[in-house]
Amino acid sequence: MERNIGIIGLGTVGQALFNQIQELEGFKVAGIAVKSASKARNADRQLITTNANELIHNPEVEVILEAIDDDESAFEYAKASLRLGKIYISANKKMVANNLRVLLHYATLYGGELLYEAAVGGAIPVLRTIREHLRNEPIHSIRGIVNGSCNYILTRMLEDELPFDQALRQAQELGFAESDPTLDVDAWDSYYKSILLSHTAFREYPNLERISMQGIRGIQLSELKKARRAGAKVKLVVSIESKGTRTAIEIAPKHVQPSDPLYSIDNELNGIVINGLYSGELLLQGPGAGGNPTASAMIGDLVNASKPASETLNRELASVH
Known about the structure:
This protein has helices spanning 12-22, 52-56, 71-83, 93-110, 126-133, 148-160, 164-173, 182-185, 188-202, 221-229, 291-305, 313-318; strands at 3-8, 27-33, 48-49, 61-66, 87-90, 113-115, 139-145, 211-213, 233-243, 246-256, 269-276, 280-287. It is of the alpha/beta class. The chain has a 6-stranded parallel β-sheet, sandwiched between helices. It has a 6-stranded mixed β-sheet with strand order 8-10-9-7-11-12.
């Protein structure tokens, strides 16, 4: 029996979602909510609606996949879906990070399910790896390059000897950075992702006052060349460390040495190193953004949400203090 899916948003990620679901057995797109119905879409017009709540309140729709940038609207859609006991899958890291406690409460209270693998690392299944494969592994720390836009800018600055502004414009032209790059270059994107990583790995919502954050805006080519002469590269690195009863988070440009697994993570790639007591260092790397990689992670959540084991996920996460 097919499960009916509702998609909110048909931009780059939403379109990739729609395309990938067509190749997936057992699932059917019942409707797609968009802002403007007049815009040309690569989907059956009978599926298009401008009313997202119409999809959410459709009793035949079991799963909502949300792929929009508007975090305030996404929060309202998430609450409404979870209140109806539905599965809500999002890639909106800002919305999830800012409202995680509330959303997990709704999921537990009403029997819904919240999944957000695509909110961290694009196609890299880092949250699922921590939850499932490292479930009983004592994790000491997580370090990573989790923003492909900044990584691309720093790579191109050094390799092509470009000033920051020119490398940023190139990233924007290629779709790796938004027209307003504030979330990326000022490290807010990495900030939201660090919250979700910390919550997943250490089962606590981090004290936001303990997060040290610095982006790459205004970084000079001379700084990158100086690091290269010393045999290093400059990367925007998220560092999350468990220190007894608390978690410390730092986000800052760092000199990364050739012996560091993050040294070879260039351009728009993401790389995340998990340091476990018994496993040692594990490196997960892959495309951190883009339509197909992000949609791929959401499809992973969709498929995993249909497994009985996933029914305990919200209860486990909600037990986190």
